[in-house]
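FW: tagging you since you asked about this chain on Friday. Here's the raw sequence from the shared folder, copied in full. Didn't touch anything.
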Amino acid sequence: MAIRQVTSSEDVKRPLGRFQPSKHQTQDYYDLHSAVELLDVKNIINNHKAYIELVDYGYLQLMEISGKDLGSLSYNEVNRTLDNFEKWITDFNTNVQIEVTTLPTDTTTQIADLRHHLSLVRQEKAKLSPTSRRYYQLEDRERLLHNNMQVEESIQQEIYNTEFILWLFAPTTSEMDELVRKAKTYGNNDFVPQDISVAKKEQIIKQYNNMNEKV
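HL: got it, structure written out here
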């Protein structure tokens, strides 16, 4: 996908990753996929903020924007949600990039819970006689838990959720701290982007760099 270049000196944006425009050109805007192809990710910082460090240009932070079912809200609630989003986008007053991505449904918690109960069942079975009634009951329980785990794993592989991801760029971690603070506080506690896990960040970066995956 092409990146449009213009010669105007107004609204110059800093390059991302290793990309360097020629001295006669400045970048007017980035198409997301082209930008991500140019991003050279160094690492994800190992702390609770988990900013994504780029090789040549500062830091990237990804945050999740939770959707709302406007059809289930009252007229006043819909208007309040729209007003708070308008306030957020106006007061934030920075280069905001919101992208839609399609990620696998996360059933990690359900699978972990099923695996825990399966372990307990097997521990109890090991203490019983294979001919006892309780042993047969536990065998049925074990099969049920195993089947449920397979269902959850299939959901994770086959069912995808559409999610809205906020992309924030900053040259330093302190400036990123300020951007994140603004993102979380400028929406009147109604429009509030949420932190996402390191695993999901890795998944998003991998997905956008491999356009054969669902996006």
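FW: Confidence is low (pLDDT under 50) at residues 1-37.
HL: agreed, and The helical segments are 32-38, 75-92, 108-126, 133-158, 173-185, 198-209.
FW: great, closing this out.
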